[in-house]
Amino acid sequence: MSYKIFKVALFAFIVTACNPYKNETESHEEHTDVKIQFTAYSNEFELFAEADAFVVGKTSNVLSHFSTLPNFKALETGVITIHLIINGKETSQILDKPTRKGIYSFDLKPETTGTGHILFDIKTETGNFQLTTPPLTVFASEEEADKDSENRVLPKTNTTVFTKQQTWKIDYESALPLIEPFGQVIKTTALVQSAKGDEIIISAKTSGIIMLSSTHVLEGTDVASGQVLFTISGNEFTDNNAAVRFAEAKNNLERAKAEYDRAQELAKDKIVSEKDLLNAKIQYSNAKTTFDNLNKNFSANGQKVISPISGFVKELFVENGQYVEAGNSIASISQNKKLLLIAEVQQKYAALLGSIYSANIRTLHNNQTYGFEQVNGKIVSYGKSANSSNYLIPVTIQIDNMGSFTAGGFVEIYLKTLTNAQALTIPNTALMEEQGNFFVYVQLTPELFEKREVRMGGNDGLKTEIITGITSTERIVTKGAVLIKLAQATGTLDAHSGHVH
User: Fold this and answer.
1) Under 8 Å between Cβ of 260 and 283
2) CATH number for 229
3) Which one, out of 153, 240, 366, 465, has a CA that is 20 to 30 A from the CA of 116?
């Protein structure tokens, strides 16, 4: 049988007495039942288990909470086998379904004392997996287990209990901080424009009166390539009448064709010379070229104005019945697939513009932040001189329109620069603010969280540099922190509420 085995991240192996969240100053006499808690992670699962202290010859209950990753929801189905391995001797049990949603309650009776570990074999619809716990000890007596627990009590100060049953019901995630390059970030605003080549202006090819082809030709209307949008009619004008020129061209073509056909027949009997036949062919060809050119853009009613690309009508420059001259702009058609973000930065950042390699973009209307990869962004150019009107330096970025950007609007942009410096970073969603101070919730166990104040560095719109307050080995809440904050405000809950033993 094949298993996917991963190196797990192991956290918080704690031996506690009765209630693991009791104050450190509580006396040993109040302890009744020694409990062990341990946490382990793989790519697919989070394990949080609470067990009776392992004493040789005594049955211990192992209450195991399994969450699927990366969504941290309860494992609802699956066959799990627990293996307690001590000094090469194994005790195991199989459960083919959870005791409760996400919870498997095992009973183990160790056969020998010593140090070992627990191995979980997990079979689900997606495959077979294994998860290993931190080292644990099987004691010879309950007195030894109780004595060992005295030095392993979790802190209670500034902590909040939030059970797995609660986290399974909310949008919750936790993660380790990252150590990664984090350069200086330039925060500014940018004007959203259609990319050059993604927008086209339709111009009049003749003078006349604009007639809309449909009452539905409005700004924002979707149009197809080759669709007729307007007609420019000059039928009522005596000069430069497109309808007259179209009729003349059609008559000239018909006459030239008739003369050419006649010359071809006469040439068979040598009645006309080759020279006359060639002249008739040239006149016919010229007349056909003139008519085809007019027929492509004109009709008896006037010039047909068509859309050269598929997209939408971005702007109309004319009204129905308006007179236009040849060359006047009639409408602009935009595909709105590519957009340009025109950002302007202060001159003090001029030396950094060459090192800009990426950006994060936040839309103001819905407060959504997009990474460069999400919008297929690229740095197009940056100015070598300041704008004479406001003394700012332009930076131009091209992105794919993801449907949340509006040409003509503004976005907030975080320009990221290259660096070799490493920094500790966390997602902005992990940060909570209180009276101007910022803090995060550090996970002591998956059911106990410590409120920790942090000092921040730069912010790129998605991540924040942390200077002090946490380390790279401390797991923090990245989603759902606000609900833990509310739980702390309403009072600490019993960590075992809802647990089945």
Assistant:
1) yes
2) 2.40.50.100
3) 153
pLDDT level of residue 29 (50, 70, 90 thresholds): very low
Please tell me what DSSP assigns to residue 376.
T
Q: Is residue 166 part of a domain?
A: no
Written as six digits, the tokens of 184 are: 């200086």
Distance of CA 378 to the CA centre of its chain: 16
| 164 lies in some domain | no
Pair 35, 116 in one domain: yes
Q: Which pLDDT value is given to residue 123?
A: 96
Q: How far is CA 177 from CA 121, 262, 343, 423, in A?
A: 29, 89, 31, 10
Indicate the burial class of 41 (C-beta count within 10 angstroms; 0-12, 13-18, 19 or more): buried
Question: Are 480 and 376 members of one domain?
Answer: no
143 shares a domain with 179: no
Return d(Cα 410, Cα 413) in angstroms, integer.
Answer: 9
* pLDDT: which is higher, 237 or 363: 363
Q: For residue 491, what pLDDT band results from cuts at 50, 70 and 90?
A: low
Phi-psi region of 488 (alpha: psi -120 to 50; beta: other; left: phi over 0): alpha
Identify whether residues 178 and 256 lie together within a single domain: no
Residue 116 has pLDDT above 50, yes or no: yes
* Residue 160 resides in a domain: no
The CATH number linked to 48 is: 2.60.40.1940
Determine the pLDDT at residue 180.
Answer: 94
Residue 18's pLDDT is what?
42
Do 323 and 406 sit in the same domain of this protein?
A: no
Determine the average pLDDT of the residues in 356-366. Answer: 91
CB-CB contact of 66 with 102 (8 Å) = yes
Whether residue 400 sits in one domain with residue 317: no
Q: How many domains does the chain have?
A: 5
- Report if residue 495 sits inside a domain: no
Distance CA 93, CA 373 (A): 47
Query: Which range has the worst mean pLDDT, 3-12, 215-224, 312-321, 459-468?
Result: 3-12
- Please give the full DSSP string across 257-298, using - where no structure is assigned: HHHHHHHHHHHHTT-S-HHHHHHHHHHHHHHHHHHHHHHHHE
Task: Measure the CA–CA gap between 3 and 121, rounded to whole angstroms.
Answer: 8
The parent domain of residue 306 ranges over: 199-233+302-334
Q: Which of 460, 481, 442, 499 is nearest to 186 (CA)?
A: 460
Q: Do 269 and 207 reside in the same domain of the chain?
A: no
- The answer to whether the beta carbons of residues 437 and 4 sit under 8 Å apart is no
Q: Any idea how long the chain is? A: 501
Confidence of residue 117 (pLDDT cuts 50, 70, 90): very high
pTM above 0.85, yes or no: no
